[in-house]
Amino acid sequence: MPRRMADPAFRAAQEAGRYAPHVRPINEMVDALRGDARGWLPHVAPLHGGTTARVLSILRDPGPATRDGAGSGFLCIENDDPTAERQLQMFTDVGIGAADITPWNAYPWYINAAPGAAQLDAGVAPLVQLIELMPDIRVVFLQGAHARAGWERLARRHPVPARRVEKVVATFHPGRQALFHRDPEVRRARAEHRESAYRDVAAVIR
């Protein structure tokens, strides 16, 4: 069921599991990053696989639905927003469950804006650290141009952790705006590319 973070009981359960064993190392890393001058960033919801996940799903930056108070305080495909709902549906359609995934962002701190080059550079070190915390990782799923740009920086500067990944799959961002184009054929091609990418991720972990 999409948008379960809107349910107080579901959200309370996620908050109670914030430091469950499979997400503790990641969320403790987030706590340390919150001490950085760059500011606040959301935890990873325990609904997800955390350190046991086989898929690392990377988007651009945390959206408003991740904010403490106004949102859930978590990265989660059950957040109360259209992008999370669309991701949930596409992952479900190809048989990928929330526990198969750890969500992240090319720029993990909250800015609710497109990160610049320096910000993408800053996002590389936390991403390397996250990969080291995921021994079962098989796929990095890059959704959007900023996710691709962040990964390219990591692959150039840190080839050893990059090579631990069996496959890198890149496609458009799951947000509705990623399909905007005057030409309906271009919109259709982008939608098909995105759907195919989700199937590619599923094929690796089956």
TrEMBL record:
<protein>
    <submittedName>
        <fullName>Uracil-DNA glycosylase</fullName>
    </submittedName>
</protein>
<dbReference type="InterPro" id="IPR036895">
    <property type="entry name" value="Uracil-DNA_glycosylase-like_sf"/>
</dbReference>
